[in-house]
Structure formats: C-alpha cells, structure tokens
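Pipeline run #58 for the internal structure catalog. This entry was flagged by the ingest filter as a single-chain record with no existing model, so it goes straight to prediction. Upstream metadata was stripped on purpose; only the residue string is passed forward. Reviewer on rotation: M.T. Logging verbosity set to normal.
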Amino acid sequence: MKYYLISEAAANFNIPESTIRYYDKKGLLPLIERDNAGRRLFSEDQIALLETVICLKNTHMPISSIKQYIDWVVEGDNTIELRLEMMKNHKQAVLAEISLMTESLMGIDFKIERYTKHLQERKETLT
C-alpha cells in the first residue's frame, strides 16, 4: 500500500500542512497511521477522506458537522441513512448559498456597469 507524507497530501490539495494538522486535531482524520518518527502517513483511504473533509469545509459545513459525519463513517454502514440525510441537507444549504451569491453578484455587476458608464461619460465630456 502506498502512503503519503503530510507534505505530499498538502501539496496534492494545495492547502497548508497546518490545515491538515488542525483537521487531525479536531478528529476529522481518524485512524491516521504514523511512522517510527511520529510523522503522519496517509493511505489512499485517508487521502480520500481528507478530500471529503476539504469538500465539506469548502462548502461551509461547520467543523462540528464534519466531525459528526466522520464519526458516522467510522461507525460503518449502519449510519449510511444518517450520512445520506446529512448530505441532502447540506446540498440544499449549498444551493441556497449559491443562489444568494448569484443574486449578490448581479448587484455587483450593476455597480460595475454604472461606474464604467459614469467614467465613460466623464471622459467624453472632457474631450
């Protein structure tokens, strides 16, 4: 089985090593193996789990909810329904945030157009 050092995992996801250490300390990366020097070793399964943690964090899931999800993963297949429900709820929250951001982006675009037009008009009156 191939293992990755924390530096390799961090580079793979373009995140700082400190972020991975933080996730580990919060219990989001259970069952991490260590070498004789105490360095974290990430198996393919751990890399996949880290990818999930990053995905959930990037979509603004709170650390406490991610921890609950990870605990359910560790518990096994008897928690699949709970995990599915959590993912469905989180998807709805993400979609609502995307909608809000899209609406807000339209407001920003309006301001950009307004200021661009204003500067253009000012330039035309000066020439």
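catalog note: The longest helix spans residues 80-126.
catalog note: Strands lie at 4-5, 33-34, 40-42.
status: ready for reviewer M.T.
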